[in-house]
Amino acid sequence: MIVPPKEFFQFCAKHVGLLRELEQRASGADLSDAEIANIANNHALESDEQPAFVTKRLKELRILVSADQSEEYFLMAEPVRAILRYLLEEAKPASAETVQSYINQLQKLAQKLKDALSTENPTLAELALADTTHTLRRLHDDVSATHVSVLAEVARYKTDRRPTSVLEKYQRIVWWMQQYIAPMLDVIRVNGPMQATFAEVEEVLENATTNALVISVDAAERNLRLVRVTRRHALNVFEQSGKEIAPLYQSLARSSNLATGAAWALDSLRLGTIEEWMQQAVVGVFGLRQQEAFSDKAIIGAVERVLNNPPAPPPTVNLEHSSNKPAAMQHRHWLDSLPDEITKELPVTDMLGWLNARYPQSEAEQLLAGFSTLFFHERFRAKFTSEATHNYETPHHLICAHPVRLEAASK
Amino acid sequence: MNYPPHLREVFEKLKNGYHISPEDDVLYSALNSERYEDYADYFAGLGITLRKHEHDFYYFEPEAEDKNSPRLAKIAVFSFILIDHIANRGLPVEPTIFADSFTMRGLPHFSTLDSYRSRLEQVGVMDYADLREVINHLKNVGWAKWVGDDEFRFLRPFHRLLSKCLELAQQSGQNANEASPILNQGLAQKHESENESHA
Q1: What does each C-alpha distance from A329 to A314, A326, A363, B44, B68 come to in angstroms?
Q2: Are residues A130 and A208 in the same domain?
């Protein structure tokens, strides 16, 4: 049954929301009759049609096709899904397997075209050429779809405000890189199978353009242009996809690494001792250690002491033997000799006069030291006389005192 | 000897662990000049290494003993928690840290996970007053600055802590390759292919 295009597009135009929800809910899988009825019911307010009627039209227009003979489950027709993805820029990227299948198919078609040209079989040549066109178009479209998908994914990351962790985002972007960008390497790799196949197809088509008797030259030239366009398109798409996704990948990889490091540090603190953790996770900051260092003031003081105290020669010690007795010793000896000296002349009526007369060169302090030695000596008894004061003259002084009498102490 | 300008001020700042960044107009300009080597040579004579970080700030290289500070442990835990929280919210860590300012009330340290609180208590950060003190430490080393009574923002030298995170990620063996090998390979091949087609 042929679907009238006008009715089909009019229905689609009127039920965009319904179609989108059907596609999103099914997401490529089937939907039960009840689910379809429920979705149609939700969108009934949008139009004046009954939900049952809308469901019926979905099937009549082959927007939904039965998944099997039971007519209980339905799939959204692939062309409708494709047009929705195209219009809403919700394209699906090409997988590595898809790309590889195109390569294989192009290789086979190139060989078939070559054989048809060599056997001069126009029917087979035409069929091979038509299939080559079709395969190239699908490859071109899938490459475009990959580009659109990458753009949409990048945009989604930039605008998505849902609380998704950096690690999760990073894992998703890595998935995209590995699943969809990496296969493009096969398309552009110089020594890869795709480039080799393109070169082979190009060569066959170039030969075909010189064989107007077997093949339509126009068709061969169109295909030749399509091969070159597809190759350039693949190169451009990969470059653009790379430019879009690489900064996002790098930013997420860096954030992921920072988060991993921070989380690891916090976990290490939980599990280990703080001393070990500090050596591992703490960022050192310089600190000037001044232990046992001299202050500026101390250094200046030391320098000043050196400047203000110039070095002097050490005192000279006379180490030669001398017979001269030290003055203190001579004085001691003199004091010790006085008792014996005066004993011979006892009693002495004026002790200081006796000392002054006997030692006229002695200074006043020496005479007085001798006087007190004799005065308090145990062998003598001293007492002041009633005589008037006398003057005793020494080299530098004049002593005025009452005379003291000295006599032997009684036993 | 012809000493470079502001030598004393530069030394006074750096000797206390401060990091000189573009925020420090005069001192930064002095170091970020053709006389940088003069500063480095002078400090080398004192046994100190002057470092210029790839993110364009200056600091004295710390020694191993310089890690043994409770204050630095507090700074580390505070920062790791903030980074973890930003990543958990799905935000890009570096742009968020340097583009935004943070309010004390908006900090996640005591208001989100119990594990954050436990880690903070391990290093002696018990309440918001302690958190404020941590931010003061960050300010003292030139990693952050107050922009209001309750608001602060991170400065360029905070990259030293981010570098530590990257180092730890590598140590953990769970780090991601920041330079995508897929893209590098692809682009290299593309150029190769273009050169060939030109030829």
Answers
A1: 27, 5, 17, 68, 71
A2: yes
CA distance A242 to chain B (A): 6
Tell me the residue length of chain B: 199
Considering chain A, what is the average pLDDT of its residues? 83
A171 and A192 co-located in one domain: yes
Rounded CA-CA distance A331/A140 in Å is 133
CB contact under 8 A, B63 and A286: yes
Contact A258 B88 (CB under 8 A): no
> Per-residue pLDDT for B32 more than 80?
yes
**Of A41, A45, A179, A206, residue with least CA distance to A117:** A206
Q: Does a cis peptide bond (omega within 30 degrees of 0) precede residue A347?
A: yes
Domains, chain B: 7-65 (1.10.10.2250), 69-172 (1.10.10)
Q: Do residues A139 and A216 both lie within one domain?
A: yes
DSSP bridge pairs for B70: none
Last residue in a domain, options A46, A70, A88: A88
Number of domains in chain A: 3
* Contact by Cβ (8 Å): A164, A170: no
**CB–CB of B180 and A246 under 8 A?**
yes
- The answer to whether residue A313 sits within a structural domain is no
Inspect the interface and report whether the beta carbons of B172 and A261 lie closer than 8 Å: yes
Environment class of A16 (CB within 10 Å of its CB; exposed 0-12, middle 13-18, buried 19+): middle
**Is residue B191 scored above 50 in pLDDT?**
no
pLDDT at A125: 87
- Give the pLDDT confidence score for residue B91 in this predicted structure: 84
Is the pLDDT at B138 greater than 90? The verdict is: yes
- Please tell me the distance from the alpha carbon of residue A45 to that of residue A64, in angstroms, as a whole number: 21
Q: Does A190 touch chain B (CB under 8 A)?
A: yes
CA angle A164, A168, A174 (to 5 degrees): 135
pLDDT for the residue numbered B194: 45
Chain A hits for B171, CB-CB cut-off 8 Å, are 264, 280
Residues in chain A with pLDDT values less than 70: 1, 45-47, 89-91, 96, 160-163, 182-190, 290-295, 322-323, 411
Whether A83 and A100 map to the same domain: the answer is: no
**How confident is the model at residue A283, as a pLDDT?**
92
| Whether the model pTM is above 0.80 | no
Predicted interface score ipTM higher than 0.90: no
Same domain, A66 and A114: no
Are A282 and B93 inside 8 Å of each other by CB? no
How many A-B residue pairs are in contact by the CB < 8 A criterion? 213
Task: Report yes or no on A254 lying in a domain.
Answer: yes
Q: Is residue A281 part of a domain?
A: no
Assess if residue A249 is contained within a domain. Answer: yes
| Residue of A164, A250, A264 with shortest CB distance to B169 | A264
Are residues A385 and A249 part of one domain?
no
| Residue numbers in B near A287 (CB within 8 A) | 16-17, 62, 66, 69
Which residues are bridge partners to A65 per DSSP? A75
CB-CB under 8 Å, B14 with A286: yes
The chain B residue lying nearest A237, using CA atoms, is B190
Q: Does A181 touch chain B (CB under 8 A)?
A: yes
- Give the range of the structural domain holding residue A220, as residue numbers without chain letter: 96-269
Residues of B in contact with A245 (CB under 8 A): 183
Residue ending a domain, among A88, A108, A143, is A88
Mean pLDDT of all residues in chain B?
A: 86
CB contact under 8 A, A255 and B63: no
